[in-house]
Amino acid sequence: MASFIIFLLILSILIVVHEFGHFVIAKKIGVKVEKFSLGFGQPLLIKKKDDTQYCINAIPLGGYVKFAGDNLEEYKGNSFEYFAKSRGERFWIIFFGPLLNYILGFLCFWFIFFAGYPTLTTKVGGLIDGLGAKDAGVKVGDKIIAVDGQKIEYWEELQKIIQSKKAATEVHLSILRNDREQTMAVSIKEKQFDDLLGQKRNVGLIGITPADEIVKVRHGFAQSFLLGINKTWDLTIMTYKAIWRMITGRLSLRESVTGPLGIFYITSQAARVGITALLHVVAVLSVSLSIFNLLPLPVLDGGHILLLAIEKIRGRYLSLKTEWIITQIGMTLILSLAIFVTYNDLLRFFGDKISRFFTK
Question: pLDDT tens digit string along 318-348?
Fold first, then answer.
């Protein structure tokens, strides 16, 4: 039950932040906001303030903001209506939702780096037969403090350095054993594997696995800010690369996309680890939601921005019929994707439980 509440809370935060982006800019520009809704379906709570009705609905899998005159059938030419505003003003109303999600993701990363996050030390927890470390005399419990003279403290640093030395024949490890430092030459073995984007990569291996020794790493306020920017940017680049590889068929859509069920599973696992892991999930989901919403697909914010661009090129609004057709196509695409993703999540995250249920 606690996992479900955490899942709903995270999902609600992402949705409210997104819709608040649309809401706050619309208000600033002078567009009347008729409704601010969290969720769909039967209203559970309704509150009216000024000209806006605030709703919490039964199905918390989305949300929306309803502007006065935000479709041509309703538009009456009043100055407070959405279509009375310039294309530039309408662009900012659309764009500010994804932008706030993106900013939220960055703020979460910034806080994680500043407050501290757990990471593995370079203490050796296991050795793999047939690879260089065991043959060179590395033992479980050794702590690696440098590679080829380069000082290291954390497993992530060690892993990055070793994997980058795939072309080398050996590396020199400085090891702390029983409070005494010693250096040993360890041979490198090159191996190919698929990375997160499904691309083949060659990496160097020496055949060690980490111990369960964990330390908390914290950075200064300014450094955390820069690390947060870098993390957000790296995630953005990786996401767009993944989208392009999915479009070109080089990355499996089935293995790369998740929906509410998958998010529930991920947040449940993260909740067991702690608040830092949950914040990391929020950051990744928020940035991903921002990027997804800016895709030039009908119904999504990116689709609305695309229609604004077409409107600017044509010099006039799209016809009601054209707008209706585009909306129906968009809804069909999104609904089809939602069904596919939900089915895929059921198989990927809950397939074993479903199989056991039907084989009892």
Answer: 777 887 888 788 778 877 777 777 777 777 6
Query: What is the distance between the alpha carbons of residues 295 and 293, in angstroms, rounded to a whole number?
Result: 6
Own/partner contacts of 187-193, CB < 8 Å, gap of 24 or more, are: 187/132, 187/135, 187/136, 188/132, 188/162, 189/131, 189/132, 190/166
The band of 55, judged by pLDDT with boundaries at 50, 70 and 90, is very high
Q: What is the reported pTM? A: 0.86
Q: Would you say 344 and 337 are in contact if contact means Cβ atoms under 8 Å apart? A: no
* Residues 301/97, Cβ–Cβ less than 8 Å: yes
Residues listed for the chain: 360
Among 181, 208, 215, 187, CA closest to 125:
208
User: In the prediction, which pLDDT does 102 show?
Assistant: 97
358 backbone φψ class: left, alpha, beta (φ>0; ψ -120 to 50): alpha
Number of CB atoms found within 10 A of residue 35's CB: 15
DSSP 23-78: HHHHHHHT--EEEEEEEEEEEEEEEEETTEEEEEEEEEEEEEEEETT-STTT----
Q: 204 - beta bridge partners? A: 190
Find the mean pLDDT for residues 22-51.
92
CA-CA distance, 274 to 271, in Å (whole number)? 5
pLDDT band at residue 203 under the 50/70/90 scheme:
confident
Bridge partner residues of 127 (DSSP): 208
Structural domains in the chain, sorted by start: 2-30+85-115+257-359 (no CATH), 118-217 (2.30.42.10)
